[in-house]
Amino acid sequence: MIKDMLTYFKDTFDPEISATVPLGQLEPSEDKKVDVLIALMNTSKFNILSWSERAYKASTWSVGIILAIVGYFFLYGNNMPYKGRIILTLGTILFGLLTQLYLSAAKRAHFGNGYVLVKCESALRLCEKGTYFKDTEFFGYSGQYLPSKSLKVLRIFHASVLAFSVFILLVIDPIVKQ
Questions:
Q1: pLDDT tens per residue, range 114-172
Q2: Number of Cβ within a 10 Å radius of residue 91
């Protein structure tokens, strides 16, 4: 079946005909433009929510794993040679930096999708006075998208847990069992 579909597409697709459609004649109606902008706003809002949710999950798991490594070191690290301690510390730093990179990407995605929302609101004139309601805006904010403060606080919290854990792994001696 898939082979038949690929054969059909190969037989019916003509790139010369597709390239000759003038772009000026493809003018969608105003209703279609509004529908596209609203769909884009919904997609951007969903992206913001999903990136934020995944960032919280990733940082929670990362903090848990880092604290589990520190706990393991405290309980069973008395027989660990100094090279093993350094390798454990470098692995923890690498894992923490990968999580920080992910949180940075989530912050950029949050701001980028928010910027798309602002552009759509501007195109729909939702932040201008008198557009939809008399002498007031449809949305009561300035039309500028602010970066996520919660993701910034999350990054700072994760970095502080990582720094504290590295300090513990390098400086503090584990519990000696008797």
A1: 878 777 777 776 666 666 656 665 555 555 666 678 889 999 999 999 999 999 998 88
A2: 12
What is the CB neighbour count within 10 angstroms for residue 52? Answer: 18
Residues 6+ apart with CB under 8 A from 132: 125, 126, 138
Break the chain into its structural domains and give their ranges: 33-171
Number of CB atoms found within 10 A of residue 166's CB? 17
pLDDT of 90 reads 95
Model confidence, pTM: 0.71
The C-alpha torsion from 73 through 79 and 84 to 88, rounded to 10°, is: -10
Radius of gyration of the chain from its Cα atoms, rounded to whole angstroms: 27
